Amino acid sequence: MATPGSLYVTMQPQPGLSLQQFHEWYNNEHGPTRLKLPQIFANGLRYRATDSQEPEFLAAYDITSMPYLETETYTCLRANRSAREAETIDQVDVKRYFWDQVLSKQSPLFIPIEQLADEEAEGLTLVAVQLTPKEADNSIEEIQKWYGEEHMGLLSKVPGWLRSRLFKTSSLEKGQPTTFIALHDYAKTNGLGGAEYQAAISTPRTKELYAKFATMSSRRVYSLFYVFGQASRDLQNLSQLPSATSTFKSPDSRTFTANSPSPVVESYITTPDGLTIPYRLEGNPDPKAPTVAFCNSLLTSLHMWDRFVDIFKAKRPQYRILRYDFRGRHSIPSPPQPSTLSTLADDISNLLTALRIPKLDTLIGVSMGGATTLKFALTYPEKLGKFIACDFNAVSSAANTAAWKERIAVAETPLDDGSAGIKKLAGQTVERWFHPATMQKQDTVAWIQDMVSANDIEGFRYGCQALWDYDMKPQMKECTVPGLFVVGEGDGKGALVKAMDGFRGQLGQTGVDLAIVPETGHLPMCEDPEGFWAAVEKSL
């Protein structure tokens, strides 16, 4: 039987540790590492004291079942911690508590804090009251009865009250005497100290409890300032660190941060079906900055946007920038499942949830990324302000499906020299994608050809199936998100220009504009980044 509870950690950084360094470590490494573990952590919440007492900082994690904290999945975190974590922890006075949940009461208006947007969550008040039972034989029972029969009910009348929970020393704390902690959640504006609150703490039964059965050993008041999930995202504190202390690579090399020449966080999320999706977050470090996300094409990586992002960051420094790699780029879930456009749209939604981004300002995608962009706009309109979909078709064809199957065969057939067939496919693909003028740019050809060659072959086999059998045209009239279509002049020797011009009028009530990038093919943002910027500038 599951035993829900809390991992409750108080922290006081020592004078030699800057707060920016302390927060960046916790937000980008320590907390997300825990939230990445499956099943164990329901959330991770960070609080700062408002009562002028120390320790100043609190991290509270709701645990789905406390015995999970004794499994190797959790205990190995400490054994395998990074050198940076070990060094930072040595500069923080830390106390960890394990609590088993005993009672819970919540307002009908209560929403789990991790489900709130940052603007809604930040500033919520937490009151933490620790009680030590007195020596009377029935003290533990009386404390629990008082909370359940009277105290929580009276607190629920306090304006702004959201939830009260009572915990006792966890069974994991073997040999420790039983103590209690009550955690009370309140809205930012609340009636703490008001008439209803005074009534709740001054009843005859309350006075009797403290006289006979319990001692209040601590009462702390905190304000919530950060909610984290499995995705590292703190560019703000990272941007304030000296370059020498900002660069970090996790022991598994899957999380990286740096502040030179500008702040960047690279890490990953795990989807509900167990797939790892890498991402890169950069740009404006303000956590409230609008975010623009990019979907790359099949067979390329998030770095296909590098040259355009350099322009975009210079022209539009107000934006955060999110890029990620499609499922199939590196691996596939087990057991393997063919990708669909719906799956790819869900992946974006899961990534945004992990990064606590409730709504994108703009989503930009090309090729399969363009189809995914439109699918996301149709499926999750509440999560998107506008979109730019490039070099894609709104419906698949039997001829296209046959072509993808032929390309899989090429990728899976080793070459005469023993090298992977995907290298041959890379050469064919780049020649098919690029405008003749681009084929003269050897650096661009080599850049994308190497990127295609590095794709996971099995991932390609299952990933490209998202383009085999789909038709978004029946849904397009329902689209409520404003958009723009963009296409390279020579894509498909001009055939895609005609195709996109043919269905652009079917989107929404009025259709969308189609911008054509001269002397480019299937990847205009790679072939001519300046030309692509000219096509999309007004939309951004």
TrEMBL record:
A Gene Ontology cellular-component term: membrane
Origin superkingdom: Eukaryota
Signal peptide boundaries: none
SUPFAM superfamilies per record: alpha/beta-Hydrolases
Gene3D superfamilies assigned: alpha/beta hydrolase
UniProt cross-references to InterPro entries, sorted A to Z: AB_hydrolase_1, AB_hydrolase_fold, AB_hydrolase_sf
Limits of the AB hydrolase-1 domain: 290-392
Protein name from the UniProt record: AB hydrolase-1 domain-containing protein
